[in-house]
Amino acid sequence: MTKNNSSVEGSDGLVYTARLPLSSATLNWPADLIRGHLKRIGSRWRALPAGKIATIVLAVLRCDQRPGDLAGGNGVHRTTVTRWVREVVGLLAARAPRLDRALKKIARTGGGIVLLDGSVIRTRRRTGKENRKNYSGKNKCHGLLVIALTDDRGRLLWISAARPGRTSEITACRRDKLTRKVREVGLGAIADLGFVGLDDGDPDADPAVITGYKAARNRPLTRGQKLSNTALAAVRAPVEHGFAHLKNWRVLGKVRTDPAWATALVRALLVLTNREVAR
Description:
It is a single chain. The protein is α/β, with parallel strands linked by helices. 44% of the residues lie in helices and 12% in strands. The chain is built from eleven helices and seven strands. The protein has helices at 24-41, 50-63, 67-74, 78-93, 99-108, 130-133, 169-175, 178-184, 223-235, 237-246, 262-277; strands at 113-122, 135-136, 141-150, 156-159, 163-164, 188-190, 209-210. It comes from Streptomyces flaveus.
């Protein structure tokens, strides 16, 4: 019997063009970052120009295109595309706002509140002990937890480090000392019922994190508490829009890379999201 190990697609393969649903301004900015980076490190040559590299990286991030497919269509190796993606993500993540600076900027512009929420980014299931810590019992999936702050219009201000999915939202906020930093700049944060108990400081002081009321088995909510929950839900709706804009980048559909690299990825996407939404 003769074995046929040839590729199904053929030796040459087919190349097609597709539209990238992003503005030219969103493309030009990473291209300028790449040119500045190459000048800084003294790199005189790349296989493709900076604009083409930026297009390839954005195709990976926005449409979750496989690096191998993009490499074949542009005459480079798959590892070259992967290296470009990590390089550009690192450049973008370095420009993500820090928590204290983001809060001070809102306070300077006259803002009084920020919106707080958390979300789980799905990851592929891992084997062995590494599999257990990424499983979120709340969401019934494997993933990484990120905490985000937005302004009252839903514009992303800050995003936390990606932590294992089993981490609770309150634990993640306490590791970032979010309550103390919000109180230091004189702001308040509005959050959902998942953050009840986060602000457990002085009961006589003004709360830094405002949440709704949670019903107990033997203590149903009063009519006033239900109205308060409804009002808070309407106020914090823009934070859901902020996460929706972030998850438009399909690379977050199910992260296939090293989870330790996910922090740089989500912070890079925050920078790109703000560029795209503000255009």
